[in-house]
């Protein structure tokens, strides 16, 4: 079993933060605003935007609603 937080070679898709970053910039919201609304830390939001962490599946739909877009607009292609 891989260590927690490590990526395995079996993952064939990677989180593409560029699409998400564009939506964040267009929203005018701060990392703190988003973190508060989604009950995560601002540091977590920062990692999403930088592409160093993937948005958990349970947060994708609420995040899309917050950014006034569809889930397809923020998910990797």
Describe the secondary-structure layout.
Blueprint: H1 17-27, H2 31-38, H3 42-50, H4 57-66, H5 71-74
Helix pairs in contact: 2-3
How does this model look, in words?
This protein is mainly alpha-helical. The chain has one domain (17-70): 434 Repressor (Amino-terminal Domain), CATH 1.10.260.40. Helix content is 55%, strand content 0%. The chain contains 5 helices and no strands. The protein has helices at residues 17-27, 31-38, 42-50, 57-66, 71-74.
CATH architecture descriptor name = Orthogonal Bundle
Q: CATH superfamily name?
A: lambda repressor-like DNA-binding domains
CATH fold label: 434 Repressor (Amino-terminal Domain)
Overall outline: globular
Question: What percent strand?
Answer: under 5%
Features:
0% strand; 434 Repressor (Amino-terminal Domain); mainly alpha; 5 helices; globular
Quick recap:
This protein is mainly alpha-helical and 77 residues long. It contains 5 helices and no strands.
